[in-house]
Design brief:
Layout lengths: L1 E6 L5 E7 L9 H12 L6 E3 L6 H9 L4 E3 L3 H8 L1
Parallel strand pairs: 3-4
Antiparallel strand pairs: 1-2
Length: 83
């Protein structure tokens, strides 16, 4: 199961969506972002995702849409890019 949660700047919950969990998480980023923006507007939000959702395609999508993000990254992946 994937959960999208919208919170205020103070951290108070404003809304949520539950997404199917029967697929690879990396395929869900674009759908989640689009649906959350359609339902809750295109506010200045920061997208926070666990490392199971990290993919080059997902990061490219967020970058193309100027969506700030914070994602967990596997250590071995960080080390490869830092070298």
């Amino acid at each position: 199961m994937n959960i999208g949660l919208v919170v205020s700047p103070e951290g108070l919950p404003l809304g949520y969506e539950v997404f199917a969990g029967n697929r690879t998480d990396v395929t869900a980023v674009e759908e989640m972002v689009r649906l959350m923006q359609e339902k809750h507007g295109q506010a200045e939000r920061i997208w926070v995702m666990d490392r199971g959702m990290v993919s080059e395609e997902g990061i490219d999508f967020l970058g193309t849409h100027r969506a700030p993000y914070l994602v967990g990254t596997p250590r071995r992946q960080r080390l490869k890019k830092d070298l």
